[in-house]
Design a protein that fits this description.
about 750 residues; mainly beta; Maltoporin, Chain A; 22-stranded antiparallel beta barrel; 7 helices; 38 strands; about 5% helix; globular
């Protein structure tokens, strides 16, 4: 299947690129000419000019309601200065609200599969999600931001080791930066950045409206269940505006493609979002947001094993920001933001009946139904920066400088076996940094982007402490030999401090009962990334008004001191009977088997390379998109052993057609995924990360926008009822699902 995927990818790339050879180039804008107060994660509509409200009532499809395509959307995530995605010199992508409404996702994996280089790991029996960028995930290797606030939650287990809770109904835009090229944007992002923008006033009200409400309600078959979102917004003249949103979702357990029920895959969410923006003077804005989510669900300790637990997961987030930007003061584009983010999961043992054998481990420790535990992380942080725009001789500059900090406080308490306290230990960690970046333009054919970031960290807990610092440079050079065609090259470094769990974990695995050891001597990971790419941007190619946008890049990311979970020390005997202590091995060794202890260690160097393609052609009456990903990754110290977090090759394409003056949009999406890599027998990942077969998914979608106030969506996922498991997941994915929704808006001037 791999050769078929790459023949399709190369053919699509050739057709897209060849089409552009006959087009006219679109205009570009220098940083000295661009001055916007949209800040990363501010909660404002980034690129609002390209995404007119009401977003949830907009026509579905890969393009926005006004005909622009996602690659033209404005982003600030990569450089903290606003630029369109197609102009970004690196692996940058965006997901618009219209794409979200097309897919009607329950999890972000359903929409991020269209973004090259990005996949997710989902527990499916737990609503938490983890993002993987270019084979990097877990413990903050991908910096996940919601309105600029870090999501640093992690719990050690057989799922992802770094995750977040967030319902797609709260989100109206996603920016993705692949690789450590955004090294000014927070500590640790050696894999990349995923920045989520929650919905706001501009996603409910048109520019000339003062107050209104938006009701979005949907229902789906095969476990998708009911989702309801009610939003309200008001503008108090030009000085202030407010926004509020309530979301309820109630999915149930679903059937896989073979028809078998996948138990404990349902949950219930109730959450709310509130925002206020106050503008005390020209160019100034004070913004505050508050978001709360509560998830209730039941699951087992691991897939089909262990006690049945009742989970009550809650997230709370507050942000407060101040921005000032004056067109008449080019050196003033200032942003200051502080935030508090908390995630806590309370778990209570319900029963042992689902798996009496493996539950014997807990019963032997005296655990009874009703016993509980919890794990919680509080993150407090800030970000401050300013951009000064000026010219020297023939060079236009946009110099951004500032600093950021985040403090993680992890607390666990376990009265149901003690494993959470051992594997997700309590402690605290601080991450601070400072940066400077100069975005230089010379004429219309040369761009140079240089940046330097200083990081410092410290952590403590369990009687251990460690710390360190590093200076990370970045340089990107872009050349435009002909209008519409830009080629660029980048050298960048990123720095990731060890997490609390990697450093302080200390306990005995439930079964088999092997030791997991702390490692206070862990060295931070340092990523060195070299990549090059091409941006194509052409208009009026075959017919007036059509557009072609293509981004393609290749990269090599070497991670020194890569941290992995590895066996250490000499083998020893442990009991083969759940709940029976290993002391029996002295008298009855035939009841035991050998195993080694495990520890997070620096394995030397991990090397990840790959190529990515993302392109869109839009001719007004329809559009076609294609994206493709190929990644290779290995531990250089053991070349025969691939990195288990590297996903298989994938290509996806979408065809959409517009009718009835663009009110009706119908289309299909095809996703081809290759078989995953196979691990050598005995690899530590092999027990739980089962290799997956290749598969092809076909989705259908349609939307009808009656007017600005009424619209409807219909989506069919997994049309062929394919029985498959997404790589890194432990449970099968759903079979065919049919989802429908309607959006009704009331607004007044």
């Amino acid at each position: 299947m791999s050769s078929c995927i790459w023949r399709a990818l190369v053919s699509g790339a050739f057709l897209l690129i060849a089409s552009g050879a006959y087009g006219q180039a679109a205009q570009t804008t220098s940083p000295a000419q661009t001055n916007s107060n949209a800040q990363p994660g501010s909660g404002q509509s980034q690129g609002a000019a390209n995404t007119p409200a009401p977003s949830q009532g907009a026509s579905s499809g890969q393009t926005s309601a006004n005909g622009t395509i996602p690659l033209d959307t404005i982003t600030v995530t990569a450089t903290m200065t606003d630029e369109s995605v197609i102009d970004a010199m690196g692996g940058v992508s965006t997901v618009t609200e219209s794409q979200l409404s097309t897919v009607q996702p329950q999890l972000f994996s359903e929409v991020l599969q269209d973004v090259p280089g990005v996949t997710t790991q989902d527990a499916l029996s737990d609503p938490m999600q983890s993002i993987n960028i270019r084979g990097m995930q877990d413990f903050g290797r991908v910096n996940v931001l919601v309105d600029g606030a870090r999501q640093d939650y992690e719990i050690s287990g057989h799922n992802a080791q770094g995750s977040f809770y967030l319902d797609p109904e709260f989100i109206c835009g996603i920016d993705i930066v692949r690789g450590p090229i955004s090294n000014i944007y927070g500590s640790g992002a050696i894999g990349g950045v995923a920045s989520f923008r929650t919905c706001g006033v501009n996603d409910v009200l048109l520019p000339d409206e003062n107050y209104g409400a938006l009701e979005h309600i949907g229902y789906g078959s095969n476990g998708a269940g009911l989702v309801e979102s009610l939003s309200g917004a008001a503008r108090m003249g030009p000085a202030a505006d407010v926004y509020g949103q309530f979301v309820f979702r109630n999915p149930t357990s679903y059937d896989e493609g073979s028809g078998a029920l996948v138990p404990y895959t349902g949950s219930q969410l109730a959450g709310g979002l509130a925002k206020i923006n106050f503008r005390p003077a020209e160019g100034q804005q004070i913004s505050g947001t508050a978001m709360y989510q509560n998830y209730a669900f039941d699951n087992l300790s691991v897939v089909n094993a262990g006690p049945l637990w009742a989970n009550d997961a809650q997230t709370t987030q507050f942000t407060l920001g101040y921005t000032v930007q004056r067109p008449d003061i080019p050196w003033l584009d200032f942003s200051l933001k502080g935030y508090s983010q908390s995630t806590r999961n309370d778990q209570t043992v319900q029963s042992f009946a689902q798996d009496p054998t493996d539950s014997e481990v807990y019963e032997a420790l005296g655990v009874v139904p009703g016993d509980s535990l919890y794990d919680q992380i509080h993150t407090y942080g800030f970000d401050v920066h300013d951009t000064a725009r000026f010219s020297t001789a023939m060079l236009d500059h946009a110099v951004t400088f500032g600093g950021d900090g985040a403090w993680d406080f992890v607390t666990t308490q376990d009265n149901a076996g003690g494993y959470i306290s051992a594997f997700t230990p309590s402690g605290q960690r601080s991450l601070t940094g400072a940066f400077v970046q100069d975005d230089i333009h010379y004429s219309t054919w040369l761009r140079v982007l240089g940046a330097l970031r200083y990081d410092n960290y410290s952590l403590s807990g369990g009687g251990f402490a460690s710390g360190g610092s590093h200076l990370s440079p970045k340089i990107t050079v872009g050349v435009t030999p002909i209008r519409g065609f830009e080629i660029y090259g980048t050298y960048a470094q990123g720095y990731r401090a060890p997490s609390l769990s990697e450093t302080l974990i200390n306990g005995v695995h439930p079964y088999p009962a092997f030791d997991i050891l702390p490692n206070p001597d862990l060295s931070p990971e340092v990523a060195t990334d070299v990549e090059g790419g091409v941006n194509l941007k052409y208009d009026n190619i075959i017919r007036p008004g059509d557009t072609l946008r293509v981004k393609a890049d290749a990269y090599l990311n070497k991670v020194q001191n890569y941290i992995d979970f590895s066996p250490v020390g000499a083998p020893y005997l442990v009991s083969a009977i759940p709940g029976v202590p290993s002391s029996i091995c002295t008298a009855e060794p035939f009841l035991c088997f050998p195993i080694t202890s495990y520890q997070y260690v620096n394995v030397g160097e991990a090397q990840i390379s790959g190529v990515e393609l993302e392109g869109t052609y839009d001719w007004g009456g329809g559009y076609v998109t294609v994206s493709g990903t190929h990644i290779d990754g290995k531990d250089v110290t053991s070349p025969s052993l691939p990195l288990y977090t590297v996903p298989p090759d994938r290509i996806s394409g979408t065809l959409g057609l517009r009718f009835l003056d663009n009110k009706l949009v119908v289309g299909t999406r095809l996703t081809l995924v290759n078989a995953s890599q196979y691990f050598p027998t005995g690899d530590e990942a092999g027990t739980y990360l089962v290799p997956t077969a290749g598969y092809a998914l076909v989705d259908l979608f349609g939307s009808y926008k009656y007017n600005d106030d009424i619209s409807a969506n219909l989506t069919v996922k997994n049309l062929l009822n394919k029985d498959y498991i997404q790589y890194l997941n432990l449970l099968p994915n759903p079979g065919i699902q049919v989802l429908g929704s309607i959006t009704v808006r009331f607004a007044s001037k």
